[in-house]
Amino acid sequence: MKDLIIIGGGPGGYVAAIRAAQLGASVTVVEKENLGGTCLNKGCIPTKALFKNAEMVHSVSTMQEFGVNLEGGFTIDIPQIHKRKDEVVFKLVDGVRRILESYEIETIFGEAEIKDRNTVVVKKNDGETESLETKNIIIATGATPFIPENMKSDHPSIMTSDEIINFDRIPESLVIIGGGVIGMEFANIFHAMGTEVHVMERNARILRRMDSDLSKRLQAYVKKQGMKIHNLASVKELNPQEDGSIQVVGEQKGKELIINCEKVLVSVGRKPNFTGMNLEALGINHTPKGIEVNENYETNVEGIFAIGDVLGQIMLAHEASHHGIIAAEAAMNKRITHNGSVIPSAIFTSPEVATVGITEEEAKAKKLDYVTSKFFFGGNGKALAMGDSQGFIKVIANGDTIVGVHIMGLNASDLIHEGVLAVSKGMRIDDITGTVHAHPTMSEGFAEAVLGLKGESIHALASKKKDSKA
């Protein structure tokens, strides 16, 4: 009998397996497709590889600003784009495989079904069936793209993120339904490669969960670059045409909206994957939105845990990994890693967006005595030297404690971690202002934004009053 069987080898599952093995557990991971799950194979990693392609195209197209002339122009080699993407994915997936092997973690490829709290039956990909006995189970089956009924279609030009990532040609036009994280990342990728991109978002702004200063400024920037953003727009139907194109019929602010395009990306969210988990038969509390768990990610059935996207909460790979560590430690009755609620997020648009802690809208709703400060990268030496000074850093403080950091600009996904430390550790304004930041760096912008909370920013024009909730 195993100590632990983990169903799903994504960033939640494989991390849980490694942590459990470190604690001395005998572990089996059951994975339906490839180790690394959606993140490594269809999501985080391949899209970031494509994001780099988009960055390269942008760099080449702006080289004249740096005194580099390309008189003959340039071409985009799609097979090479996918070759590089696939090599990155393979290297990471193979790395996960080798790490699991080093911890003597068994990996079985196939579809798992939970028979009871101690039994998992696997229909292996080679056709054989195996019954496994275990003391504990972790459900880490992730999520799949959600497709509304009026958008379901077998037409090859109507895709989810799972399909579009393997594009065989750059479409002349693309309608993206949904202005969330996945939608905006693909919008950035294809727009940079020359596609006419339309984003249909049913809310008043894209990335609506972000601080409004970020989402509004990003929307203004991408529209200025030529991307078409249709806010308060809903889709009624998708009509395939005889020439293979798609007619998108929708409504915007009470008026009919019709867009004809070559491809459609449906990106309106993801839903938890419960396949084979027999939640009803096992009596595991859940809703269509996700499995219910306690602070250690254990379900109401003792010995069965659930982590990551299958919970239907914030669907982020690093959060799933954090869940996995906690669940593995709980299953082995060991110390429980701090269950931090401070989870950063990063969006790979151009410019990048990253955030942690509360937004200004949340601060207002909570009626906090807060102040805000923004430092624009137009005043940052490195940003100007790198030719990428779009964006800013916004800091929110409750009293003198930093509670939110929101960044739009070059390397935002890396810069955010100074904010993560500040928010998670409850750091005060003087903790940051008393820390020397190297020059010239983008990180100086964070120090300047924090100084601005006290009206002491050095590289910003003098202001008679601080940017506050008033």
Helicity range: 25-40%
Uncertain spans, ≥5 residues at pLDDT below 50? 466-470
The largest sheet is: 5 strands, mixed, barrel
Annotated CATH architecture of the largest domain: 3-Layer(bba) Sandwich
Structural class: alpha/beta
Mean pLDDT: 94
The share of residues in extended strands comes to 25-35%
Taken together, the total number of domains comes to 3
- Radius of gyration, in angstroms, nearest whole number: 24 Å
Strand order of the largest sheet: 1-2-3-4-5
Q: Enter the CATH topology name of the largest domain.
A: FAD/NAD(P)-binding domain
Number of strands: 23
Give the terminus-to-terminus CA distance. 62 Å
Q: What is the CATH first-level class name of the largest domain? A: Alpha Beta
The helix tally amounts to 14
CATH homologous superfamily identity of the largest domain:
FAD/NAD(P)-binding domain
**Overall 3D form:** globular
Commentary on this structure:
The chain has 470 residues and is of the alpha/beta class. The protein has 3 domains: 2-145 and 271-331, 3-Layer(bba) Sandwich (FAD/NAD(P)-binding domain), CATH 3.50.50; 149-268, FAD/NAD(P)-binding domain (3-Layer(bba) Sandwich), CATH 3.50.50.60; 351-452, Enolase-like, domain 1 (2-Layer Sandwich). It has 14 helices and 23 strands. The chain has helices spanning 13-22, 37-41, 44-61, 78-102, 161-164, 181-192, 212-224, 279-282, 317-331, 360-365, 381-385, 412-424, 429-433, 444-452; strands spanning 2-7, 27-31, 106-116, 119-124, 129-139, 143-145, 158-159, 173-177, 196-201, 228-231, 233-240, 246-252, 255-261, 263-266, 270-272, 286-287, 290-291, 304-306, 345-347, 353-357, 370-376, 392-398, 401-408. Strands 1-2-3-4-5 form a 5-stranded mixed β-barrel. Strands 7-14-8-9-10 form a 5-stranded parallel β-sheet. A 5-stranded antiparallel β-sheet has the order 19-20-23-22-21. Strand 19 (345-347) and strand 20 form a beta hairpin. The longest helix is centred in the N-terminal third of the chain and has 25 residues, at 78-102. Residues 466-470 have low confidence and may be disordered.
